[in-house]
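Structure ticket #2291
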Amino acid sequence: MTCNLAAQLREGTKKSHTMAENVGFVKCFLKGVVEKNSYRKLVANLYFVYAAMEEEFQRHQNHPIVSQIYYPELNRKESLEEDLSFYYGSNWQEEVKPSKAAQEYIARIREVSQQDPELLIAHAYTRYLGDLSGGQILKKMAMRGMNLSDGQGTSFYEFDQIEDEKAFKATYRNAMDSLPFDQSQVDKVVDEANYAFKLNMNLFKELEGNLVKAIGQMLFNTITRRRSRGSTEFATAE
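Resolution: structure written out below.
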């Protein structure tokens, strides 16, 4: 008997997924408009979030339920450390700290880990499956938007320990479906996944102000250059 958790998570978070994709920062990112300072702040926040999540999963690696969906090959902490070193330099640990939204996200992960560890499944689903599903597309967007060479600042999107991402996702979903959950437990996980989407959206929304300012400055610089070039051309023509 299967609890169909994977399918119910997919269906139950559709609205949240769409809302997340329509946050301004994400919409710009998906169009290849990426401002490096905003992006590196996101990387820093994700580092603290994944560090907390992976610490809690390791803490519960022998839990009868959590252990069934504990896959260390998904861990992102080390890859995010590589990216932070690229964006901030070797002393990155002295340069970064979690934002308010990241602190709230981390606090929620710690809370469910202590009170109801099975809800960690919702946080793993929201982050890891999303990373696996759109990772390569997002990597290309990041590279194009920030003019990065391959391998620069995009380690987060590389799952070196997973040979076949499609097959792995199928294995992961089967593991979720095999959990001995009744419908009330499934509903709790779906509710927590929607809350996890909200926490992620808060991370993105924090960055929108910086992104808007950066885009505005880029447009201003472009217009100024064009005007300057136009004035020079006019003076030459005279």
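Closing remark: The chain has a mean pLDDT of 89.
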